[in-house]
């Protein structure tokens, strides 16, 4: 990445030279402030009007010094700045620096590796859910599309490189979604992410069926095969069109205000030790408990007599505002 630091150093040196020269001409040679500045600038720019001249040998030597070294720094600063402005590099550098600073401040965010066809859909969903995330992408054409999305944090680079993952804050990320179309690349990303952050939840894309097992062995918590999901959905659409239509409405219709949510029961929760039928989750909030995840096991459609325990993850479905209210109860607030 191009750096603006050399330009800033050159400006600082040039300013120091001009200030020192003005001070010398004003104090040692007794010239007025305007005359000292005029003589200094005419020497730095090599215009040499000769209306104001140094009166001592030391002053003449300083004037020659200004003509050579000062002009050199001035030329470097002006040429580099103008070139940067023409090429748009200055704004690009500052924009990247600002983005990197934002990324370094993130905690419990999501890293999306790859912004291709699948990755774009992931990005749109994360934006809709107002989640904090960082995108890693190496293709210039795709990066231009990401810029067009607006305030999307991204890093231009290869997600299989450890350095790029560290720049994205993998050690502090809550989850990683790797969507690149290369199974070997997704495998490398999964292994690296588990090394840097064993607690992160990793969702990996698999193109070939045999890659699913490998990715899970490497540490992926969830492996998704877009082709398999598409085929299954097409078959269900033919066999059970009404059911698929309902599911599509729940998933794709963003205006219905109905959401799926996962809530963790902590030791502070009022639900600990309470039976499902006594919790009044359905009666008071209109929320359905679809499943309970407990110690790696899924209790689908739990019985009313099921007792909530610390560490249970409730999979809930209901209105967004009611889920927000229930979240406070589950958290023990």
What characteristics describe this protein?
6-stranded parallel β-sheet; Helix Hairpins; 333 residues; Rossmann fold; Alpha-Beta Plaits; 4-stranded antiparallel β-sheet; 3 domains; elongated; alpha/beta
Order of strands, main sheet, comes to 3-2-1-4-5-6
CATH superfamily of the largest domain: NAD(P)-binding Rossmann-like Domain
User: Any guess at the CATH architecture of the largest domain?
Assistant: 3-Layer(aba) Sandwich
**Distance N to C terminus:** 47 Å
Q: Return the average pLDDT rounded to an integer.
A: 84
> What portion of the residues fall into strands of 2 or more residues?
15-25%
Count of separate DSSP helical elements = 14
CATH topology of the largest domain: Rossmann fold
Compute the gyration radius: what is it? Answer: 32 Å
Structural class per helix/strand content? alpha/beta
Number of strands: 10
Low-pLDDT segments: none
Largest sheet: 6 strands, parallel
The helix-strand sequence is: HHHHEHEHEHEHEHEHHEHHEEEH
The overall number of domains is: 3
Membrane topology: Multi-pass membrane protein
Subcellular location: Cell membrane
Protein name: Voltage-gated potassium channel Kch
GO cellular component, one term: plasma membrane
């Amino acid at each position: 990445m191009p750096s603006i630091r050399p330009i800033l150093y050159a400006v600082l040196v040039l300013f120091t030279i001009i200030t020192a020269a003005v001070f010398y001409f004003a104090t040692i040679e007794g010239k007025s402030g305007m005359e000292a500045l005029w003589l200094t600038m005419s020497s730095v720019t090599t215009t040499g009007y000769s209306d104001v001249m140094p009166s001592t040998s030391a002053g003449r030597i300083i004037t020659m010094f200004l003509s050579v070294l000062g002009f050199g720094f001035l030329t470097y600063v002006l040429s580099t700045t103008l070139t940067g402005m023409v090429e748009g590099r200055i704004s690009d550098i500052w924009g990247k620096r600002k983005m990197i600073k934002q990324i370094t401040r993130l905690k419990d965010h999501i890293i999306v590796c790859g912004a291709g066809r699948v990755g774009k859909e992931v990005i749109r969903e994360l934006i809709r859910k107002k989640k904090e995330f960082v995108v890693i992408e190496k293709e210039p054409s795709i990066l231009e599309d990401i810029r067009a999305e607006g305030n999307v944090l991204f890093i231009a680079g290869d997600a299989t490189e450890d350095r790029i993952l560290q720049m994205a804050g993998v050690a502090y990320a809550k989850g990683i979604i790797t969507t690149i179309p290369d199974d070997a690349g997704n495998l490398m990303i999964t292994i690296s992410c588990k090394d840097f952050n064993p607690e992160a939840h990793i969702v990996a894309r698999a193109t070939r069926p045999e890659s699913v097992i490998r990715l899970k062995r490497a540490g992926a918590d969830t492996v998704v095969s877009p082709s398999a999901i598409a085929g299954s959905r097409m078959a269900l659409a033919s066999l059970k069109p009404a059911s698929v239509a309902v599911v599509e409405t729940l998933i794709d219709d963003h205006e219905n205000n109905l959401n799926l949510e996962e809530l963790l029961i902590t030791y502070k929760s009022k639900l600990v030790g309470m039976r499902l039928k006594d919790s009044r989750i359905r009666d008071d909030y209109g929320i359905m408990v679809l499943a309970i995840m407990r110690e790696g096991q899924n209790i689908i459609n739990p019985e009313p007599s099921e007792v909530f325990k610390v560490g249970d993850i409730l999979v809930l479905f209901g209105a967004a505002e009611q889920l927000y209210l229930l979240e406070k109860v589950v958290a023990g607030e």
